[in-house]
Each structure stands twice: as structure tokens, then as C-alpha cells.
């Protein structure tokens, strides 16, 4: 799943499928009959249906599923790891520990509120593009928005671009570690892996695609910069792509 631009994107799923994985590319807003924007509440039951659909396919190993999300979807996959037992691997790419924008309803009826930001904190570069580094509010100031990550009982690969101009990634890692030390320190050591991309920007894709330093973002109706440098960003994508495949194979393919 991708981020706050909405719709359906099949690039990363297609490349994974070419390497032997059964992959479902899933839209969650802004597509056909789904909610039009992220101000609406999402529900883990919708994602449970997708998990069930994949696991009932006759050519899919029934050992569980992995979920991977970029940007806004990075928080969704954390919620799925905490609420759907069939999820056996969570990969969050430049995501957030809070539920961004609209709320998320869990299967037990509890609701995680949405974390918003302030567009006035977007810095305008000399070229006229926006820098959203400080756009989103601090999760610790809004505890009801924080996903119960202590409930996740599977492998979590958390990737942070160190020059991300969309989320303050290093602060997010600090918050995650602080929360887990308070709530479930064993889980921090047992399940979580933190990976960094030095001088990489926000928009992480499979390797060897053109580096994207800035692009139009329809959520803010303007051009946003994403950070990073072409060389370092590309190196990070190559290393991350290798690790993603390793994690999925280790966690989803049963030992012989």
C-alpha cells in the first residue's frame, strides 16, 4: 500500500510478484467506491477481508501474510500487525507511529484517533516548493493517535530515510523505542528491526527507478520536496530492496 496520494499503485507489487511472491496491491481511499479522502474513518475489518482473500487463494502458502506500506500506509501496516493475527511480517517505509489523518477502527471496537498537522508549518523553498519536515504534529502530544505497537507479535522492519522532508523519521524511531521500552521491552528486542538510509529522501521505491527530489502532491495541492541526494538515495533503495525480500522469505515461507 502507498501513501496519502490515494488510488491504486502496482509498481512495487509487480516487481515483488516477478520474484515469486503472491502480491495484492490494495487501495484504501480515493479509488472506485472507497472513501474519497483520509478524513474518513478506516477499519481494520476492510484489511482483514484482503488478508482472507489472499490466504484463500489456492496457490498461496497458508503460513500468513506480510504487509508493506509506504508513507501514510506505513502506519496502516502497524495497525494491521497489532490487530490481525494472520499478519506475520510488517514492513513500514518512512511511516508514522500514529494514525495519520482519519481515525482507524479496530476489530474490538476501539478507535485510534487521527494525527493531523498544520499546513502553515510548510516551509517554502526559494524554488517555490514546500518542505513538510515540520508539518505533522508530534505523536507524543496526542497519545490517543498512537497505534498500540506493543501488541504486534511478528517481525517489523522499520525503514527511515535520514533526509526525509515529510516525516521526522529519527524522532519517530525514538518515540517507538521509548513506547516499547515502557509497554513491552521484550517485543523491541524480539520483533523490531530498524534500518536507515543515510541522506535518502522520503519517496522510497524499488531500485533503479529515477530519483524523485520533488513532485506535485495533491493533498496539499502543490509541489513538495522529498529530500535526499540521487546517489545516496539510490544506494539506500538497493540495500532496502534486498532486505525486504529476505524478511518476507524468512517470515512467510515455512521451514522445511
From TrEMBL:
<protein>
    <submittedName>
        <fullName>Acyl-coenzyme A thioesterase 1-like</fullName>
    </submittedName>
</protein>
<dbReference type="InterPro" id="IPR014940">
    <property type="entry name" value="BAAT_C"/>
</dbReference>
<feature type="domain" description="BAAT/Acyl-CoA thioester hydrolase C-terminal">
    <location>
        <begin position="43"/>
        <end position="253"/>
    </location>
</feature>
<dbReference type="GO" id="GO:0006637">
    <property type="term" value="P:acyl-CoA metabolic process"/>
</dbReference>
<dbReference type="GO" id="GO:0047617">
    <property type="term" value="F:fatty acyl-CoA hydrolase activity"/>
</dbReference>
<dbReference type="InterPro" id="IPR029058">
    <property type="entry name" value="AB_hydrolase_fold"/>
</dbReference>
<dbReference type="Pfam" id="PF08840">
    <property type="entry name" value="BAAT_C"/>
</dbReference>
<dbReference type="GO" id="GO:0006631">
    <property type="term" value="P:fatty acid metabolic process"/>
</dbReference>
